[in-house]
Amino acid sequence: MVNKRIFLNAFDMNTPGHQSPGLWTHPDDESHRYKDSSYWIELAKLLERGRFDAVFIADVLGTYDVYNGSRDAAVRQGAQAPVDDPLLIVPLMSAVTNHLGFGVTSSVTHEHPYLFARRMTTLDHLTNGRVGWNIVTSYLKSAAVNMGRAGQIKHDERYDIAEEYVDVCYKLWEESWESDAVKLDKENGIYTDPNKVHDIHHEGKYYKVPGAHLSEPSKQRTPVLYQAGASPKGRAFASKHAELVFIGSPTKNAAKETVRRLREDIAKTDRSQDEVKILTMLTPIVGKTEADALEKLEDYKKHISHEGASALFGGWTGIDLSGYEEDQVIEYIENDAIRSALESFTSIDPDKKWTVGEIKDFVGIGGMSGYIAGSPEQIADQLEEWVDETGVDGFNIAYAITPGTFKDFVELVVPILQERGLVKHDYHGTSLRDNLFEQGDHLPEHHPGKQTGKELVK
Amino acid sequence: MVNKRIFLNAFDMNTPGHQSPGLWTHPDDESHRYKDSSYWIELAKLLERGRFDAVFIADVLGTYDVYNGSRDAAVRQGAQAPVDDPLLIVPLMSAVTNHLGFGVTSSVTHEHPYLFARRMTTLDHLTNGRVGWNIVTSYLKSAAVNMGRAGQIKHDERYDIAEEYVDVCYKLWEESWESDAVKLDKENGIYTDPNKVHDIHHEGKYYKVPGAHLSEPSKQRTPVLYQAGASPKGRAFASKHAELVFIGSPTKNAAKETVRRLREDIAKTDRSQDEVKILTMLTPIVGKTEADALEKLEDYKKHISHEGASALFGGWTGIDLSGYEEDQVIEYIENDAIRSALESFTSIDPDKKWTVGEIKDFVGIGGMSGYIAGSPEQIADQLEEWVDETGVDGFNIAYAITPGTFKDFVELVVPILQERGLVKHDYHGTSLRDNLFEQGDHLPEHHPGKQTGKELVK
Fold first, then answer.
1. pLDDT tens digits for B117-136?
2. For residue A457, what pLDDT is reported?
3. I need a surface site. Which of A32, A438, B125, B412 has the fewest CB within 10 A?
């Protein structure tokens, strides 16, 4: 039995088809409403009612074009295409909620940190301290090319850039403005004491930012830091900086191994294990009864698009499945890269021989992390099992259909989790970070964000 | 008598002290609430009630540091410092209104057009076609330096960059996605017809963008284009691209001359004069009676900050007033740059000899464009005179105190303008552009935005 609370994050994207390619064709799916303010406003209210900690908005700056060497499949199937900006929907959602947090994805390779730092401070102002940043290094070549580069920057160098990028941001957020710089002293005519605003003097390999932050400090100063890198460099970065780490695995065994490695990496740092929460992605298909859930699942399955699944799979793994027949068995495919990339599937059931078509079916609901289906009690039980057996702290809940999946979860599963003491009945914190860690609004003292250039603040 | 409607734009910025330095110290001023969602939500509702066409959010990416060679004056006086992001407040305001438009400032020298184009399309989606873009080339050296450049790009080259930047945006907005590309065909499983999404193949001097727009078309496709450049290069750019041009002059004579020059430049293009509206900045101080207004003005004047005025004046003109005594008369100052920069003031009253202190007083309310004070009828009369005598199409209304100035104007002056048939009783358009020009949501056919690479769209 789980004896700690389960963290709940909703996973969405400013696009029609996020993690369940083809399910936008389901009559109840409303993901095409992503362009309308009302979709996000309703979603935010629903999630706050369900006491979710945060909603997290993914992003890509390109279109998946590995499958068949073309973006056509992704475009035709609405598979994360078209895709709109993730930051601009946050103010909409924050205006109709009081506690829900908002994680947004922004890549360190595409926008200058001086500008980005101001955007995040602005969001933290407008949300009154409820913003998180998912630090990504961008994996799509098509994105890099459209930003004027000959190709993607090499993986390891992207993490070097990321290190310097967050360093610039930390300096702007944590050190440029002292907490009592803004006086708002109408009597003496002093808005801000200029002696308490400091240049950051950043001069690095990739960025030169001599000046001060344009914005006054926000409630959290540094937004809550999210990261999802799974490579050794990515894990090292996450262990050092991230406060929430997203993982995704089709099985508990695989998740357990990822958690073990991450926890090992964190142990090598000055940070305590409590300062990093690990959430795994999962798509819950909830029925009033088990039979109801299985019926729903069969109905959803009819809407899976193999073409859309192939497009997403190609973008995520770099593997083009277009050369293979649907009934080819993976085991017999003479391509080591594909077989090794698909090994995680075989861990679901070691005896099963997966065909290419079955892989696409799997990806069709909940992407590479799969789904669970059952009655509300069964779902609650399964979540507990995941926490017990893998060591994750909670879930990044993705949708099969939206807002249906979120609605079912909030209305049917959350009350059971609350009854079991696993989800809070009310929010208690004063900011997203305080809601998550109950240690105040700011980064903990020994976080690297607190260590850079301390001498600036007298 | 004016026989056309007067266009009304509200002028604000995501900062405490916009155009009236020091007036944040007035007990009724709430500009320090710029960080709170509620300020923008209330303002948007007020302006829509007053049938304003749009609210326009200015921006700078640096701090004014010419006066005394330091940013201290601007920081101390809250003179456009601190300053938050302008785009992120738009969704807040659009969610509580149905017709009000939103102009946002974004510089062509600091963000890549591929990313920026998506941000604007996202805003146009979320606002349902109510977004405008104020195209600026950034005049502050402190901004350039913090973006990693050795210094500011030369003025004329900035306009070359601007030309290519808008060209990239036009291609992404107007030509990449055909209007019927998105099918949302649930029955046949076609979200978008990939044959109707086109790469833009842009390869220029400053940008290479081979691919397609990430977003599907928004209602207006290209946002309404605003521009405010006053130099010959700036006017040429405005004549070619802008649909709304902002000017600012302390006197009707100066405004008349600016309008004449702009109209002359427009006449040299293929565009009709109707396609470009010219708004002049003005700060109205409205009382219930004339005496009431003058009393209000005297009260406001007590809150002017000469230090803040010097900071803004330095940023705008490049002239550092710190070496001069308050009672020095401009005429006798042996500095041609200063005397020529201040010539426009002497046009207010040719016989008056302005002292440095008086100049600061003038800048203290309504910046370089001045204010008018009077009873509601007097203000309405004066607006009509401005339109009659200068040829402007309307006003960019700035505040002395906020939201007080806007509230007075909406409650006291707008009803009179409506009675006179100069301000509409209701909105009729389907988008910001349609509200302004009554010719539909899109750019007119012979606008340069419609001319680039037409062959892409079959």
1. 999 999 999 999 999 999 98
2. 45
3. A438
Give dist(CA B386, CA B227) in Å, integer: 20
Instruction: Residue A439: give its domain's CATH number.
Output: 3.20.20.30
Q: Quote the CA–CA distance of B93 and B107 in Å, as a whole number.
A: 22
pLDDT of residue B165: 96
Please give the pLDDT value at position A458. Answer: 38
Which pLDDT value is given to residue A18? 92
Q: Which of residues 207-246 of B touch A (CB under 8 A)?
A: 207-216, 218
Nearest Cβ partner for A92 among B72, B126, B212: B126
Q: Which amino acid is at A26?
A: H
> Does B24 map to a domain?
yes
Range of the domain at B94: 7-456
Nearest CA in chain B to A141: B211
Q: State yes or no: pLDDT of B139 exceeds 70.
A: no
pLDDT for B458 beyond 50: no
Average pLDDT across chain A, whole number? 92
Binary contact (B37, A95; C-beta < 8 A): yes
Which of B372, B167, B393, B343 shows the shortest CA–CA distance to B285?
B372
CA distance A125 to chain B (A): 5
pTM of the model: 0.96
pLDDT over 60 (residue B455): no
> Is B207's CB within 8 Å of A148's CB?
yes
* pLDDT tens digits, one per residue of A100-154: 999 999 998 888 999 999 999 999 999 999 999 999 887 677 788 888 777 777 8
Task: Tell whether A62 is within 8 A of chain B (Cβ).
Answer: yes
Q: What is the ipTM of this complex?
A: 0.95
Residue of A nearest to B142 (CA): A211
Residues A169, A113 contacting (CB under 8 angstroms): yes
Which of B84, B148, B197 lies nearest to residue A118, judging by beta carbons?
B84
Residue B429 one-letter amino acid: G
A76/B191 touch (CB, cutoff 8 Å), yes or no: yes
* CA distance, residue A9 to nearest chain B CA (Å): 23
Is residue B2 one of the residues assigned to a domain?
Answer: no
Distance, CA of A250 to CA of B432 (rounded, Å): 48
Whether B35 sits inside 8 A of A84 (CB atoms) is no
Q: Could you list the beta-strand ranges (E) of B287-398.
A: 371-374, 394-397
pLDDT value, residue B457: 45
pLDDT digits (tens, 9 = 90+) for B24-35: 999 999 999 999
User: Does B453 score more than 80 pLDDT?
Assistant: no
Identify whether B1 is part of a domain.
Answer: no
Contact A95 B94 (CB under 8 A): no
Pairs across A and B, CB distance < 8 A: 215
What are the tens digits of pLDDT across the range B272-294? 999 999 999 999 999 999 999 99
| pLDDT above 70: percentage of residues in chain A | 94
Rounded to the nearest 5°, which phi and psi values hold at B281?
A: -75, 135
β-bridge pairing B202-203 and B394-397: unpaired
pLDDT of residue A140: 74
**How many structural domains are present in chain B?**
1
Higher pLDDT among residues A261 and A142, named by residue: A261
Contacts of B211 in chain A (CB under 8 A): 62-63, 142, 145-146
Nearest CA in chain A to B73: A194
- By the CB < 8 Å criterion, does A178 face chain B? no
The residue written with tokens 């606008």 in the block is B447
Which of these, B59, B6, B18, lies nearest to B398 by C-alpha position? B18
And the tokens for B40? 């923008």
Token readout for A190 is 């002093």
Q: Cα torsion at A107, A110, A111, A113 (round to 10°)?
A: 60
Strand, helix or coil at B118? helix
E runs forming strands in B129-196: 131-136, 182-185, 190-192
- Asked, for residue B401, whether it belongs to a domain, the answer is yes
CB B22 within 8 A of CB B308: yes
